[in-house]
Each structure stands twice: as C-alpha cells, then as structure tokens.
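User: Teach me something about this protein's shape.
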Amino acid sequence: MKLIQSISKRFSSIFGWFMKRSLIIKLVIVVAVIALGWFTVPKLIGSKSQQPQYQTAQAEKGTLIIVVTASGQVSQANSATVDTKASGVVSKIYVENGQQVKTGDKIADIDLDLEGKQRASSAWSSYQSAKNSLETAKTSYYTLQSDMLTKWKTYMDIAQSSLYQNSDGSPKVDARQLPQFMSTDDDWLATEAKYKQQENVIAAAQTALNSAWLSYQQTSSTIYAPISGTVTGLSLQIGSVLTAQSNTSGTATAQKIASIQTDASPIISVNLTQIDTPKVKVGNRATLTFDAFPGKTFTGKVVSIDTIGSVSSGVTTYPAVIKLDTEVPEIFSNMTASASIITQMKDNVLLVPVSAVQTQNGQSTVRVIKNGKMEQVNVETGLSSSTQVEIISGISEGDEVITSVISNGGTGQQRTQTQSVFGGFGGGVFRR
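Assistant: First, the predicted structure itself:
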C-alpha cells in the first residue's frame, strides 16, 4: 500500500513538471510569432504601399481654345449724366425712372434760391453777350461781302478795258504790271480774304453762343435731358433742396441729378499686359463674366485696342474695348468684368492635360499605361493652353496617359504631381 502511494506521488511530481515546461514552451512560441509579425508584416505592408499608383486621363480629340484673360469695368459710353449748377427747392418733376426721354425734354423745375438766381443771371448775361457778338460778326460779314463785290466790279471793269486786255480777250501782260492795275487787283483780293476770314469769325461766335446757352441751361430753373434714352438713378422729390456746389477756387460746379442710358450695347474696357497685347486683334471674340451676375456668361468682340497704353507704378497696360453682342439693360456703368479673349482656336486636335507632358532638352514625353505597365513615349506637341496640350504625333486617341503619381508612405497618403513646361496662354477645351 505504501509502495503504491509512493509511486503515485512521484508520477504527480513528474506530470506537474511537464505541464509547467509545456506552458513555458507555449509562451515562447506565442512571443516568437508576435515578434515575427512585428518585423515582417509592416515590411509586407510597406512593400505593397510603396507600389506606385497613377492618376490618369485619356487622350481625346476636341477643340483647343487659347485665350488671353483681362479684367476691367463697364464704361459710360452708353450713358450720360443729368446734372445742374442750379440751387434751390425742387418744385416739379416731369419724369420718373425707366421713362424714355428725348434730348431737351424737361426733367424737373427748381425754385431758385438767391445764389441760384445770381448764377442764372450771370449765365444769362453771358448768353446775351455771346448772342450780340454773333450778330455783330454777321453784320461785319455782310459789309465785307458788299465791299468785296464792289472791289471785284472795279477790278473787272479795268481788267476788261482796252488798256489791259487785247481785242482777242487775252491779257496785256506788260500793262498789268503797272501800279494802277496791281493796286486795283490787290484791293479786290484783300476784301475777298477779309470776307472769307469773317466766315470763321461767325463760326466761332456761333460756337460761343451754343456754349453760353448750355451754361445757362446748367444754371436755369429747369433741368433738361442732355441726350435721348432711359432715365435712371433719379432720386429727386418735390421739396428736395439742392445746395449750390463749388470747387476750392469758388467756381460753380455741377451736381448729378440722374443718368440717361441709351439702347447701345454696353462697352467694357479691359487692361491688357504688354505681353498679351500683341496676341489680341480687333475682331477677336470674347466671353465675359460680371461679379454682379454669378454663373452667367456674355459674349462680345474686341472693337479697339489703345496701343499707346499707359504706365502706372512702372507697370504698362493697354486698354482694349469689348462690345457685347446684345443689349443687356441690367449691366450698369462701372460694373466689374472679367474677359477671356479668344486669340486662337483649333478644331479636331488630339489633346492631353498639361500635367501629362514633360519636356527636357527640347524633347517632350508622355507616360502611358499599356498592358498595365507604364511606358514613356516621345511626342510632338503643338499649341497649348493653361489646361490642354495639342499632341501632333506619338500617341493615339484613347491612350491612357499619366497625369500624376500617387504613393503611400507613413501614416498618410502623399501625392506627387508631375511637372510641365506648358501653361502660358490660358484657355479651355470643348470636347466632341
């Protein structure tokens, strides 16, 4: 019995030692597996993540449009200001905003204050003086005309006499060199010259009269429309007070009452750089956008280019005028505009994105994907815009070209865009 108990205790001791060793072995195996995974799995993942991934686009045929961009403002070429130098209280208003008027139509009446009356009286006096000057010039004109005709008659009587004319009607040259004949001839020529000069005097007097009348209208109690068109911006009300305006020297100045807009298409003046100006020609088509109309595009054409230009802060710009194709009443003077002027257009050409082309030492190349692999192909390029390049030869329509390379690294994703030498003109493409 004791022998059996002794054998049982020894067996239990051996089994316990074996179980302890088995647990240690298992722990060693687990630690080894974890360590192996720690060093191996990241390498496998890293190896996979380092495989390059590409961003691609297809080579497509379309229309390449090359444009020059510029910004500017709507000019006041289709509107005029209604202003006045009068001062006082508005007593009557004849028009309202949106109403059509003709040149000379009444806009409003003003009950002049003392300063307004003084200005109006002074302007009326100047007008009367200019009118008198014109009448005096006309009187002198008629007097000179009569004198000229009299001197001409005296000259003709002498010239046709037998003393200075042969029987066949030819002049006696030697006799006409005598002082009596030459004096008569000079008298007629002098009166003729004075008569013709007086015509210019009358024209100047008429211009002065017109100017005096316009000045009087500026100060009169009635405000008139300067041109025909649609009244806009009229803010007068009966009882409104117009205060006399003047500059620092005390000279009377006009104040704006309203504007009159004609039916002419809006004119947009944009500034071109000295690099872009040679590319733009009169007649070039253009598209325009306005800050006031987001999402809308208007069309027009270049009607003039000021090649003299101007310099501001060392920067030279050349104004170009673009006329819209249609009348747009909602476009007002001084609105900000951005223009894209089409300088070149080429149809049915093979196009790829600018980022797909690299150029080194004068040779352009494109990377394409063929059978799942990247190949670098030499290409011949043509025109280019800021977004597309024309491919003349080297690849075909439908080829998949690489525009950028994407690689994974670290904890995030890093993208490396391919560089290109193209992109100087700006533009876009309309695809088939």
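Now, about its shape. Confidence is low (pLDDT under 50) at residues 409-432. The helical segments are 2-49, 114-159, 179-219. If you'd like, I can walk through any region in more detail.
User: That's plenty for now, thanks!
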